[in-house]
């Protein structure tokens, strides 16, 4: 598998010419890179006006590998070819490098670019990409990959330190400015002071390990080779071009708002973000949100991409992005839901308190239903994301999760009511799938004897990484050392837990039975929730077809729609026509071209056309059977510039089009 790396944008707050002067001091050898043994100029070309300089250099590295592996390979040094193109007029340096040693067994390629910052011409940007493809290596492919990834991860931080070291050295020597290139000065070297010249004055890159990467991307601690190897995924190598903060991530921004990431973690974030920008036709999630999904899958980009796309589809279907503006908690929740936000913990994380033992879960489920409770919990999670963003700005450090304190005093067998547990499990499932890595710590206090029963029921549905964040205290153990005072400031411990801070979380109590829903309300709950979302619904009388027409403008679209039948069964057909379909008459079924059920196969889509007609009707042979969702996704090439028409003759047929 080809391993990839994409760096963030490293910004040096120094002019391009000064950074190049510092860069020159790394050659022909650099004492800050012990493994960099030597470099020889193989070829050099300079344009007539002196604005462009091309240098090809052969570099030798003493790779830190087991001696046995070196003896098996039969080499002491690993050689790389580096080609540098310096354009003084455009103020850019493009670097390409590849391995010469074992080139038939291992393919290594790197591209780097120094350029002027698009918004400040006195700053310099740096980016790099790299790829590693180990085809065969005497049976030690996995070992070689781990060695390469380990040394590469550590080299990135060192590369940044090297440039800063030489910039400081220049400053100590009194050199704070290098004039820009001009046609009249083309005969001069890049840096006019002779103290800057070396035995090899031309520019070149220094590969820092067995992956020939110019060690200058962004700082980040080295990490275990096995984990680093798992972080790199097979993905397209991005072209290195000067970018703007809007379309590329800056390394300082990552450190300020996302935290300390290793270079390979940064690479996964950048590549997944770029993939979304190129393929996702909708609202791109925030960087913090993307990072949560990567962390939830240990930075396996393929797995993170899969669950993130599923979550984005779910958010669109349920209009979750607008939940805080559109959702208003019913009065029964405001009075009897014993949960609420309460200041923050010692790490600056928002603190949510839930007095589960005082909550009438049975009463809330019977009064509101499972869906309303789920929406309320989703609004809590959305509010938590918003509070994390606010606390990040307030405390000046990345805060991406919150702390939850659950008080179980009063928990009894009433809380194990089966529909209530079922609702809880569904809520956990939805939150785990769409809000990963949002829980920083869960403090469970005053756990009673019945708690192990509840824990046995819900723990299988909780991710293992999430379970590790649980801290459980029985009785009054939370009051001593190692308890609440280790995680929450004493001044904000709620009064019902022995603290001095008044907590505005409702005390709960039994929900009056007069607030319970009637049997008819329970039966119609699903329909009401469907109509609140982006789906369209319709009740159709027999013989009165219903059609929905959707225009597909983008030829590369993938069309997806859902059918959900409340009562009875449906059958539908799909047809193609190059002409616009006529509105069907309502006095006869024959006008709709309804034939047999066999016509519902996808083979009817083999001939491309501009129009697609979907005709659905009731199957009278089993009208009482409940049909559920039928999702159809068709190839984008077959539905270019198409319309979808859905026709139903079922009096109880509800159609939902996404």
Give the gist of this structure.
The protein has 658 residues and is of the alpha+beta class. The chain has 17 helices and 20 strands.
Fold and architecture overview:
With 658 residues, the chain is of the alpha+beta class. It has four domains: 2-173, START domain (Alpha-D-Glucose-1,6-Bisphosphate, Chain A, domain 4, 2-Layer Sandwich); 251-318, Helicase, Ruva Protein, domain 3, CATH 1.10.8.20; 321-513, Phosphatidylinositol Transfer Protein Sec14p (3-Layer(aba) Sandwich), CATH 3.40.525.10; 534-582 and 605-657, GOLD domain (Jelly Rolls, Sandwich). It is 29% helix and 20% strand. The chain contains 17 helices and 20 strands. The strands form four sheets. Strands 1, 2, 3, 4, 5, 6, 7 and 8 form an eight-stranded antiparallel sheet that branches. Strands 9-10-11-12-13 form a five-stranded mixed sheet, with helices on one face. A four-stranded mixed sheet has the order 14-19-17-16, with no helix packed on it. The longest helix has 32 residues, at 141-172. The two termini are 37 Å apart. The model is unreliable at 187-245, 529-534, 584-616 and 618-658 (pLDDT under 50).
């Amino acid at each position: 598998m080809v391993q990839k790396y994409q760096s963030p944008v490293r910004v040096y707050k120094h002019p391009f010419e000064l950074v190049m002067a510092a860069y020159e001091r790394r050659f022909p050898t650099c004492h800050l890179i012990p493994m960099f043994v030597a470099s020889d100029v193989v070829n050099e070309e300079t344009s007539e006006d002196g604005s462009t300089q091309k240098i090809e250099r052969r570099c030798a590295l003493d790779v830190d590998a087991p001696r046995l592996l070196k003896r098996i390979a039969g080499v002491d040094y690993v050689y790389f070819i580096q080609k540098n193109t310096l354009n003084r007029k455009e103020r850019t340096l493009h670097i390409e490098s590849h391995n010469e040693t074992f080139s038939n067994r291992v393919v290594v390629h790197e591209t780097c670019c120094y350029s002027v910052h698009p918004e400040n011409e006195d700053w310099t940007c740096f980016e790099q990409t790299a790829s590693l493809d180990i085809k065969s290596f005497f049976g030690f492919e996995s070992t070689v990959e781990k060695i390469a990834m380990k040394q590469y991860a550590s080299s990135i931080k060192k590369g940044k330190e090297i440039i800063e070291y030489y910039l400081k050295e220049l400053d100590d020597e009194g050199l704070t400015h290098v004039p820009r290139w001009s046609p009249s000065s083309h005969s001069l070297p890049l840096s006019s002071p002779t103290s800057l010249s070396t035995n090899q004055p031309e520019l070149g890159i220094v590969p820092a390990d067995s992956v020939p990467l110019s060690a200058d991307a962004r700082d980040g601690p080295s990490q275990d080779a096995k984990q680093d190897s798992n972080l790199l995924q097979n993905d397209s190598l991005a072209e290195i071009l000067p970018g703007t903060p809007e379309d590329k991530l800056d390394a300082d921004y990552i450190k300020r708002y996302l935290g300390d990431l290793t270079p390979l973690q940064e690479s996964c974030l950048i590549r997944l973000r770029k993939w979304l920008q190129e393929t996702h036709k909708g609202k791109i999630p925030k960087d913090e949100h993307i990072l949560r999904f990567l962390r939830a899958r240990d930075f396996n980009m393929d797995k993170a991409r899969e669950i993130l796309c599923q979550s984005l589809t779910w958010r669109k279907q349920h209009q979750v992005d607008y939940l805080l503006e559109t959702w208003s908690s019913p009065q029964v929740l405001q009075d009897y839901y014993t949960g609420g936000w309460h200041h923050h913990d010692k790490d600056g994380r928002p603190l949510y308190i839930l007095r589960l033992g005082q909550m009438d879960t049975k009463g809330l489920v019977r009064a509101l239903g499972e869906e309303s409770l789920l929406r309320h919990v989703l609004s809590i999670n959305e509010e938590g994301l918003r509070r994390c963003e606010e606390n990040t700005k307030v405390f000046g450090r990345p805060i991406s999760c919150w702390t939850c304190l659950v008080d179980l005093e009063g928990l009894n067998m009433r809380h194990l009511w089966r529909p209530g547990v079922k609702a809880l499990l569904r809520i956990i499932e939805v939150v785990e799938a769409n809000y990963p890595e949002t829980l920083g710590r869960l403090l469970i206090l005053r756990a009673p004897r019945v708690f192990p029963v509840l824990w046995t029921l819900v723990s299988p549905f909780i991710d293992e990484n999430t379970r590790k964040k649980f801290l459980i205290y029985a009785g009054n153990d939370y009051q001593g050392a190692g308890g609440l005072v280790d995680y929450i400031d004493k001044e904000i411990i709620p009064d019902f837990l022995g603290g001095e801070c008044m907590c505005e979380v409702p005390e709960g109590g039994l929900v009056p039975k007069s607030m319970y829903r009637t049997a008819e309300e329970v039966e119609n709950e699903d329909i009401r929730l469907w109509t609140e979302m982006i789906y369209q619904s319709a009740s159709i009388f027999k013989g009165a077809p219903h059609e929905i027409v959707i225009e597909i403008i983008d030829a590369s679209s993938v069309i997806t729609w859902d059918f959900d039948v409340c009562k009875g069964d449906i059958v539908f057909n799909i047809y193609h026509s190059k002409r616009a379909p006529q509105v069907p008459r309502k006095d006869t079924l024959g006008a709709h071209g309804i034939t047999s059920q066999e016509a519902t196969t996808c083979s009817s889509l083999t001939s491309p056309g501009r129009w697609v007609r979907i005709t659905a009707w009731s199957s009278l042979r089993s009208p009482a059977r409940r049909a559920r969702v039928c999702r159809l996704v068709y190839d984008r090439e077959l539905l270019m510039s198409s319309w979808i028409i859905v026709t139903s003759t079922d009096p109880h047929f509800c159609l939902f089009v996404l």
